[in-house]
Amino acid sequence: MLNIVLFGPPGAGKGTQATMLVNKYGFEHISTGQVIRDEIRLGTKIGRSVKERIEHGELASDEVVVELVADFVERHRESSHGNIYDGFPRTTVQAEEFDKTLEAHGLCVDVMLSLEVPEEVLIERLLRRGAESGRADDFSIEVIRNRLDIYNRQTAIVADYYCRQGKHIIINGLGSVEEVFERLCSEIDKLVPCPICHNPVI
User: Fold this and answer.
1) 3-state secondary structure of 30
2) Nearest-5° angle of CA 10, CA 48, CA 139?
3) Is pTM, for the whole model, over 0.90?
């Protein structure tokens, strides 16, 4: 079973690309951001604990996020032939705990595909998304800048963690949705077994 980390800053297009990749390859998709927003909407204990942090552009605690992802892995380890993790891991601690969770099931992260987009483009995308969706964390430029600052300080270094494992691949996130999708697929196709010989497509 493949485990793919789809990485990049807020506004890089991870959610859109993940949906398209799921449709093409039949992978399972976990967006920790969406899971947490669902918890907030439902008013669960986890949702209440992270609501204020999220609305100020801060990250949910490592403990909460790792718990959510560990539950996902447990529920899908038998039925899925591939998983896409969108927005996770966001800290080195999460990456380390994630490796332990996967190792317990005889699995590992196969690749991190990192979407790179200039900051000015990210801000423009997020403001537009906030105006369209009404999401509190996309509506204010101050909150957006705080989110990007937190990403640069706490999350971007996660790429170094996977780079040391030889699993980090940079993907140009500019261009049309279709162009970015093709770049992602060209890397995933190197890992997906051929249906005839069962070897990766090179």
Assistant:
1) strand
2) 35
3) no
Separation CA 98–CA 93 (nearest Å):
8
Strand-by-strand arrangement of the 28-31 sheet: 28-31, 82-86, 2-7, 111-116, 168-172
| Range of 9-13, 74-78, 143-147 with top mean pLDDT | 9-13
pLDDT tens string 64-84 = 888 888 888 887 777 778 999
pLDDT of residue 188: 96
CB-based contacts of 92, cutoff 8 Å, min separation 6: 157, 158, 161
**Both tokens assigned to 192:** 């997906």
* Residue 17 identity: Q
Q: Which residues contact 196 (CB under 8 A, 6 or more apart)?
A: none
Cα distances from 24 to residues 154, 177, 185, in angstroms, run: 32, 14, 9
Amino acid making up residue 80: S
Q: Which residue has the tokens 């995308």?
A: 125
Tokens of 58: 């801060």
